[in-house]
């Protein structure tokens, strides 16, 4: 009851003040009606005016009573509405109080569950940490044993590798001495071969074989040349030719030439058609890159 008064004291105070106001209004109405009553008159005068005055007074009193009944009815209706609102407010306050109590109960239950879950989690974490620590210590011991074994094997391997390296070094020195001797012999042999080739090349050039080789190429190119109308007498064109070891022409380009563009193009085409070029009488005269002077007969 005390909690209800604390929660709804404003509404209770308003209802009390409203009842006091109604009581005051009723008292003022009664005082006003007593003032409006006609003053006492002589009996003879009453006989003359009583009829009209009594009728007017009766109608006035009737109107006052009707207004009073309406006012009282309005006040009752208003009081009933206020009472209903007050009861609704009480019911709302009760439901709100019950809702808050339920929320507090649920919050307390949730808090307890969370605390229990927290304790269970902490206990599980402690067990896991202890297991992890035991596992770590076991791993440390295992690592120490493995490291000792590894160092033992590493030392044995180091000694084995050192012995192998010593033997390899001795073998490498022996092989190097043999290779140096072989290289020296090869160099001497290559030098003798080069000297012999140079001597043979000089002999071949002295015999005119180089000119014979150039003439063979000139003749084959000229046979494959389609002389353009713009070619004039005294034509001289330098040709750079790249060929494979079997004489296949890889490229042909006319350099210095006293002919026009059509002449140069016709000469390059003739060189390509002349492929493969004839090989030299002496193989030592062969060159991959040739510079030829094309001088067709007029």
Structure description:
Strand 1 and strand 2 form a beta hairpin. The protein contains five helices and three strands; from the N terminus they run ααααββαβ. With 298 residues, it is mainly alpha-helical. It has a three-stranded antiparallel beta sheet, covered by helices on one side. The termini are far apart. The protein has a domain at 208-294: Fusion Protein Consisting Of Minor Coat Protein, Glycine Rich Linker, Tola, And A His Tag, Chain: A, Domain 2, CATH 3.30.1150.10. Helix 2 (9-36) runs antiparallel to helix 3 (43-206) and helix 4 (209-223) packs across helix 5 (261-273). Residues 40-49 and 203-207 have low confidence and may be disordered.
Kindly report how far apart the N and C termini lie. Answer: 144 Å
Major sheet summary line: 3 strands, antiparallel
Shape: elongated
What is the CATH topology classification name of one domain? Answer: Fusion Protein Consisting Of Minor Coat Protein, Glycine Rich Linker, Tola, And A His Tag, Chain: A, Domain 2
Percentage of residues assigned to helices: over 70%
CATH class value of one domain: Alpha Beta
Strand order of the largest sheet: 2-1-3
The residue ranges in which pLDDT falls below 50 over 5 or more consecutive positions are 40-49, 203-207
CATH architecture grouping of one domain: 2-Layer Sandwich
What is the string of SSEs from the N terminus onward?
A: HHHHEEHE
Rg, please?
Answer: 69 Å
Q: How much is the average pLDDT?
A: 82
DSSP summary: helix tally: 5
Structural class estimated from helices and strands: mainly alpha
Write down how many β-strands occur, each being a DSSP E stretch of 2 or more residues: 3
Query: Strand content of the residues, in percent?
Result: 5-15%
């Amino acid at each position: 009851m005390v909690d209800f008064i604390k929660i709804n004291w404003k509404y209770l105070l308003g209802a009390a003040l409203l009842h006091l106001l109604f009581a005051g209004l009723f008292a003022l109405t009664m005082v006003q009606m007593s003032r409006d009553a006609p003053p006492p008159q002589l009996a003879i005068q009453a006989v003359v005016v009583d009829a009209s005055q009594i009728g007017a007074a009766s109608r006035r009193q009737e109107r006052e009573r009707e207004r009073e009944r309406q006012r009282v009815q309005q006040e009752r209706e208003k009081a009933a509405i206020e009472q209903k609102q007050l009861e609704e407010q009480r019911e709302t306050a009760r439901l709100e109080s019950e809702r808050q109590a339920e929320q507090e109960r649920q919050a307390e239950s949730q808090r307890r569950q969370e605390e229990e879950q927290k304790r269970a989690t902490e206990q599980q974490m402690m067990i896991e940490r202890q297991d992890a620590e035991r596992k770590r210590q076991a791993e440390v011991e295992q690592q120490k044993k493995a490291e000792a074994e590894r160092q033992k094997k590493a030392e044995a391997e180091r000694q084995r590798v050192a012995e192998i390296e010593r033997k390899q070094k001795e073998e490498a020195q022996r092989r190097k001495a043999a290779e140096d001797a072989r290289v020296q012999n090869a160099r001497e042999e290559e030098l003798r071969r080069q000297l012999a080739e140079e001597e043979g090349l000089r002999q071949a050039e002295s015999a005119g074989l180089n000119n014979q080789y150039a003439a063979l190429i000139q003749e084959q190119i000229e046979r494959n040349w389609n002389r353009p109308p713009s070619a004039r007498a005294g034509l001289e064109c330098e040709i750079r030719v790249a060929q494979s070891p079997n004489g296949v022409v890889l490229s042909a380009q006319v350099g210095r030439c006293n002919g026009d563009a059509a002449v140069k193009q016709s000469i390059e085409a003739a060189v390509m058609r002349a492929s493969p070029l004839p090989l030299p009488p002496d193989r030592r005269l062969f060159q991959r890159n040739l510079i030829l002077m094309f001088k067709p007969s007029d």
